[in-house]
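Lab notebook, page 48
Experiment: co-folding of the full assembly
Goal: obtain a model of how the components sit together before planning crosslinking
Operator: M.T.
Materials (sequences as entered):
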Amino acid sequence: MKAIVSVVGSDKVGIIARVSNFLADRDINIDDISQTVLEGNFVMMMMVDLSKSTARIGPLKEELEKLGQTLGVSIAMMHERVFGAMHRI
Amino acid sequence: MLYTPFEIKETVDMFLRQKLDIRAITLGVSLLDCACASGNESRRRIRDKLLRIAGPLVNVGREIETEYGIPIINKRVSVSPIALVAAASDDVDYSPWARTLDEVAKELGIDFIGGFSALVQKGIASGDRRLIDSIPRALARTDRVCASVNVASSKSGINMDAVKEMGRIIKEAAGLSADRDGLACAKFVVFCNAPEDNPFMAGAFHGPGEGDSCLNVGVSGPGVIKAAIESCRGASFDVLADTIKKTAFKITRMGQLVGAEAARRLGVPFGILDLSLAPTPEVGDSVARILEEMGLESTGTHGSTAALAMLTDMVKKGGVMASTSVGGLSGAFIPLSEDEGMVAAVRAGSLHLDKLEAMTCVCSVGLDMVAIPGDTKTSTISAIIADEMAIGMVNNKTTAVRIIPVPGKKAGEWAEFGGLLGGAPIIAVHDFSSEAFIARGGRIPAPIHSFRN
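Observation: model returned without errors.
Model output:
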């Protein structure tokens, strides 16, 4: 399955590195990545592929949330199909 | 990137900040094939069938929640109107049927099971009579069973004999649950033009025209609509209407995705998507606050009906295109105790029962979760129901009454029902009598425009 990881918060050194390492450690591939500043916030979006990973999505989301807390940003992961349903006809 | 950062942030915010969720996935199951001469045997068949078909419901709901990141608040079951199923038996008291449903609901881990129901818009058959008489006991002795009676339709008119009975049933149910502020009445709805595929409680039942089973989905999202129109302050109604429509479209697409996926995993057909804005008592999940965001100081003031009319219509228009099959109630709910903004409006003195009734002409349900004084006369409750049924009948829409005469409490006092049902200040009713009006009985004929054949 594919998922979208969104990272929103104030910018600081190492956010992309920490999140990417976290994903790599779990065999999650990053298909696409973009970063911008939206309404004054650092916003990073990643399209990730979980098909080779053995990590279960439930615990994975919790761990990402915890990682977000240590970095002072908000990290969320959702199924790619939710975005497809809402934004593409 | 396939999606723009703005699109991704918009969706993530809907769930994380604006409390978007799937309010209910409701599995409709026909029990018509469980009817037989023995009540015991029939209830055994019901139990077996429900455990077999609805067994995986809660787990499937949880799987989708985790996998998709979309909260599914309630997993529920609706069944064929029990009056139809139980009529073949010799049972006089149908409360054991409610107990069976309650036990099954607890075993399945679902929060409500709907369908302790009768359809009596034109006449009361023997099974309907026995079911109606059993409603107060059935609701007072069970926790998760919801009951409903359809007493009117645009095609048949209003069965005023049944309306008269409803006043008595509601008072009796309140009396039997007096220690919980009349909570039993919160699980009972009186309908005009009841939809057969409604996923929302307490009025859900699996209509006799439905197939063996199907999955219906109720989407919510008042917080999302409010956040969307916050960006249109000062803009004209054209802009406002368009913004609501687009947002409703997005919310509904999410519901369609979840509904189709849940139906696939359960191996049942996808029924309908009900795109109602259903509030909860939590701050940020209120329909009243949407009306206020449109420019009203407090809900209930002049302009509230127009605001609600536009909101309901735009939600329908946005949603219809986003789903393969829309049904149920679809629009905006204005339950009093379940909406923090509605409660605040009553407290502020801007919302009274008469204005609330006017607003039900354009909302998607009716007088919902309204607490009234415990000493309200039976005939007055029936008359409140008659008014609401007339609105539904003449306007070809669903209307409903879920009203709680709170035992021992007066207007202005607080009634607490707990959880998603919330709590509400008790609202005053007119003191003038409707006794002679209700005593007439009989049927109010269907309006002339019902003859469309």
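Interpretation: Chain A touches chain B at residues 1, 4, 6, 8, 32-34, 36, 38, 43, 45, 47, 57-58, 61, 74, 76-83, 85-87 (CB under 8 Å).
Next step: discuss with group before ordering constructs.
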